[in-house]
Amino acid sequence: MVDLIADYYEGLPQQPRVSPDVQPGFLCDAMPPRAPEQPESFEAVMADVRDKLMPGVVHWQSPSFFAYFPSNYSFPAALADMWSSVLGMVGFSWAAGPVSTELEMAMMDWMAELCGLPEAFKCNGGAGPGGGVIQGTTSEAVVVALLAARARCLAGCPAADKLKLVAYSSDQAHSCFKKACMIVGIDHVRLLPASPQHDWALQPEALKAAIAADVAAGLIPCFAMASIGTTSSCAVDPVAQLAAAAAGSGAWFHVDAAYAGSAALLPEQRHHFVGLEAVDSYSFNPHKWLLTNFDCCCMWVADSGPLKEALSLTPVFLRAAGNSLDYKDWQIPLGRRFRSLKLYFLLRMYGAEKIRAYLRHHIALAAAFAQAVAADPRFELAAPQRFGLVCFRLRDVPREVNAALLAELNAGGRLFLIHTELSGAYTLRLAVGAATTQLEHVQAAWAAVAAAADVVLQAHGAAAGRKEAAAAGAGAGGAGGAAGA
């Protein structure tokens, strides 16, 4: 299996397609109708993996994968994942996994130090009051933060106040915000508009006004979330100003930096992360841009008390002996994998300096693509290039033309992009993030974009010409008929 993995990774640049040419249901007819009664050989299983399963794979680790934010792979993290699987340790408490608990505290402190996070987020060996925990995904982290917010907000309040809680974020925030509100049962959800005039960043005046209006209506501000690096455009909300706008309202303030949080390792990017000392919780995903195989979401809280109040329900047989930091009380499930081992292997085997160089490399590649877009008068940048993301589109064309451009680009399968909408405008996204992506792959992507633009603009021009000719012909026929009459 290790040899097969190494062969696959080495052959990624030569894969004929990044995204598969399959349709829904492609696997149904190829699969046996029921599980085998007798054992089958590893060779037979892997033959089916090659012939039946691999044709449906999207090659996320391909150097020409530019679609979603990355989900990086590295050999150190993969080796750690293998070792974690072999150990099979479920470290829900210190007693159940002393090393997994204590290594997680150490790794969360290492990451906090590397990212320049506030001292309040440090684990301090479990002494608190704050600390870090590894969640599976940002979606889990936001649910956990919202549960802590609700617990703090409702402490000593009548049960009926649950119906008055309000949560706030930008309309550019990830959908996990709204889903968390659905799960937790927050009925009043404010998606505050962010405008292109501010590069789609939420403005503190909008948050302050919304909170004031809700308080005046007898509602209770419970939770506010800012984003550093939104999914659509990598917009960066002004955390310090938003935290100040929410101050005094009682709302828990969370910051989601799922993709962009890795950039905090770079001192020159720290201006995007100003104000974290004023927030209650913060999270980002090393499994996106930091070479840590999925899943691994780092979450920190300044005070773990409300979080434990919301999530701890400890029966006698699970009570810890000698250590109060049981991570089962910091998350939704009881069971948890030994995820901190991935961070440990990664940081030890690569080192912070090499990781910083890798992040800077991706930012430089995105900047090179953005420069190519800006130099072509047919195109426009739809948002400032931030981190590894470039948002762009053909200038002054109907949305179907940009949609046709994306379809043309993805049809051949040699690269993979997706789109978003900014102020209702169809916008293409190119996200640099695969571990093996180099300048040659970005240059090839731009060449493909420029060539596809030639095709779709020519087709659009011909179609427009036919429409104009048809309209002119209809007008002439109508005029002639009227004259003859």
Distance between the termini: 83 Å
Sheet-strand content, in percent, reads 5-15%
Order of helices and strands: HHHHEHEHEHEHEEHEHHEEHEEH
The CATH top-level class label of one domain: Alpha Beta
Uncertain spans: 472-485
Q: What is the fold-level CATH name, i.e. the topology of one domain?
A: Aspartate Aminotransferase, domain 2
Can you identify the CATH superfamily of one domain? Type I PLP-dependent aspartate aminotransferase-like (Major domain)
Biggest sheet details: 7 strands, mixed
Number of helices: 13
- Give the total of beta strands: 11
Structural class: alpha/beta
Rg (CA only): 26 Å
Give the spatial strand order of the biggest sheet.
1-7-6-5-4-2-3
What's the overall average pLDDT, rounded? 89
Give the CATH architecture of one domain: 3-Layer(aba) Sandwich
Query: What is the helix fraction of residues, given as a range?
Result: 40-55%
Shape: globular
Summarize the structure.
This protein is 42% helix and 12% strand. It contains 13 helices and eleven strands. Strand 4 (220-227), helix 8 and strand 5 (252-256) form a beta-alpha-beta unit.
Q: Could you please describe the fold and organization of this structure?
A:
This protein is of the alpha/beta class. The protein has a domain at 77-347: Type I PLP-dependent aspartate aminotransferase-like (Major domain) (Aspartate Aminotransferase, domain 2). It is built from 13 helices and eleven strands. The chain has helices at 2-11, 42-53, 75-87, 98-114, 138-154, 176-184, 204-216, 239-246, 286-289, 305-311, 340-375, 399-411, 439-484, and strands spanning 131-135, 165-170, 188-192, 220-227, 252-256, 281-284, 297-301, 379-381, 389-394, 418-422, 425-431. Strands 1-7-6-5-4-2-3 form a seven-stranded mixed sheet, with helices on both faces. Helix 3 packs antiparallel against helix 11 and helix 12 (399-411) crosses helix 13 (439-484). The longest helix has 46 residues, at 439-484. The N and C termini lie far apart (83 Å). One of its GO terms (biological process) is carboxylic acid metabolic process. Its cofactor is pyridoxal 5'-phosphate. Belongs to the group II decarboxylase family. It comes from Chlamydomonas incerta. Pfam families: Pyridoxal_deC.
